[in-house]
Automatic annotation (TrEMBL):
One of its GO terms (molecular function) is peptidase activity. The keyword tRNA processing does not apply. This is Isoaspartyl peptidase. Keywords: Autocatalytic cleavage, Hydrolase, Protease. SUPFAM superfamilies: N-terminal nucleophile aminohydrolases (Ntn hydrolases) (SSF56235). InterPro entries: Ntn_hydrolases_N, Peptidase_T2. The keyword Protease applies. The record marks G173, T174 as: Cleavage. It comes from Pontibacter lucknowensis. It comes from the Bacteria. The active site is at T174 (nucleophile). Substrate binds at R202, I203, G204, D205, T225, G226, H227, G228. GO terms for biological process: proteolysis.
Length: 309
């Protein structure tokens, strides 16, 4: 048994049936299923975990439903600033970007950084120059325009308020993927548009290795979604790995300790997706819901869910 496994997420928060129309729920589940199945096919064909998580996140970035890539929220200036990261559990190499504009798929840029740069973390103009050097696709500002996102921003643009993706209900808009391939290698990737009306080039946890994204073949691969300031201070992704490595916790035990106990005591809301080196999956969250899905060698049909139950 190869123990292939992949999990994906599209954000967490106050996501309830009451806040969702049947058509919108169908659209979310369809997009999640497509990304899940396309990326799992890479694993089935002997592809790497790194390739699988990159594709899964890129497909979610291409959807306006999620706050990443095309669906990114508006900043205080009415622009889009995107963050992303990717990490290989086999080599412990990583690539990350923060505050990039006009990049169609920030996760593609992080992969290029991982493979072609001596650095891990690039930001702003320099990251965009690096993207041009390696033919990463750019898009005009109109590509990132979404009527609903624009209304969110318009309602608060003349205030000092920033929003976690939505006004009425707290949603943490991030997409991510974790995977284990046939060789037993792990990988993780995360991408986000950040917070609506964010100012001062604010950066969240998604591109921070060890906070929002982490992968280590000895333990697990993690991609987080939540209020980034709390996830940074709690070093969430690495904390899960540490509990497994130094205390012998199982994946589920480590995830529950960090997400359901430590984060709650911090005042942090959100969740994460995780896979360990045996192909076990965990998808804990302490919010009302989390857009999520997983597929494994043991569960060939795969599962896509939104709500707590």
């Amino acid at each position: 048994m190869q123990n292939l496994a992949i999990a994906i997420h599209g954000g967490a928060g106050t996501i309830t049936p009451a806040s969702m129309t049947p058509d919108l729920e169908k659209a979310y589940k369809s997009t999640l299923s497509h990304a899940l199945n396309q990326s799992y096919q890479i694993l089935e064909k002997g592809g790497s975990a790194l390739d699988a998580v990159e594709l899964a996140v890129a497909l979610l970035e291409d959807s306006p439903l999620f706050n990443a890539g095309r669906g990114s929220v508006f900043t205080k200036e009415g622009k889009h600033e995107m963050d992303a990261a990717i990490m290989c559990g086999k080599t412990m190499e990583a690539g990350a970007v923060a505050g990039v504009r006009s990049i169609r798929n920030p996760v593609r840029l992080t992969r290029a950084i991982l493979e072609h740069s001596d650095h891990v973390f690039l930001c702003g103009y320099g990251a965009e120059e690096f993207a041009r050097k390696y033919d990463i696709a750019f898009e005009p500002e109109e590509y990132f325009y979404d009527k609903h996102r624009y209304k969110q921003w318009r309602d608060v643009r003349d205030t000092d308020i920033f929003m976690l993706d939505h006004t009425e209900d707290r949603k943490f808009g991030t997409v991510g993927a974790v995977a284990r391939d046939a060789n037993g290698d792990l990988a993780a990737a995360t991408s986000t548009g950040g917070m609506t009306n964010k100012n001062y080039n604010r950066i969240g946890d998604s591109p921070v290795i060890g906070s929002g994204t982490y992968a280590n073949n000895d333990t697990c691969a993690i991609s987080c979604t939540g209020h980034g300031e709390f996830f940074i201070r709690a070093v969430v992704a690495y904390d899960v790995s540490c509990l497994m490595e130094y205390k012998g916790y199982t994946l589920q035990e480590a995830c529950d300790e960090v997400v359901m106990d430590k984060l709650v005591r911090f005042g942090g809301e959100g969740g994460l997706i995780a896979v360990d080196n045996k192909g076990n999956i965990a998808l804990p969250f302490n919010s009302e819901g989390m857009y999520r899905g997983y597929r494994t060698s043991q569960d060939q049909e795969g599962r896509v869910s939104i709500y707590k139950n």
